[in-house]
Amino acid sequence: MNKTKSIIIGLAVVFLMVSAGYAETQSECQQRGDRHKGRIFKELNLTQEQQKKLEENQKAQREEMTKLRSAIKEKQAKLQEELKNIAVTRAAVEPLVNEIKSLQAQLIELRIKGIFTVKKILTPEQFAKFQQMMEKRGEGRKGRFKNWHGRRKGMDSKIQN
User: Fold this and answer.
1) How far apart are the first and last CA of the chain?
2) CA 91 to chain centre
3) What is the pLDDT of residues 93-116, one digit of tens each?
4) For the whole model, what pTM was predicted?
């Protein structure tokens, strides 16, 4: 039982530390997003109407995602606090865990809804090009993580020495 508690607490701490490490201010993220959005609009050769619809969709989706992420953070903090209690049982935290799962499922559903909304706004050709652009963007992110991870390994070996 103690081993299970230790594992659960350890996983929760690691998860919270990792998510905090990737935190970024909203304005920095928005500025980067605005520059990226402008490039996408230009490359896809969007009409003014398409741009307006995409921006409206993005705004509505961003607001909803912000609410969901905030609720998830709040529930995770509560879970973290509960897990610190030595007498806590799995049954006691299960409702909180289920709430977090439900909120995460809502985030996924919102993302899928957003993709299909974009698909309705763009022409099939524009959507295909958009998907290619997003794949390239994702590959760039993987490279950055790989570079960060490599630097981290170097730091870990220095610490061990």
Assistant:
1) 35
2) 28
3) 999 999 999 999 999 999 999 999
4) 0.61
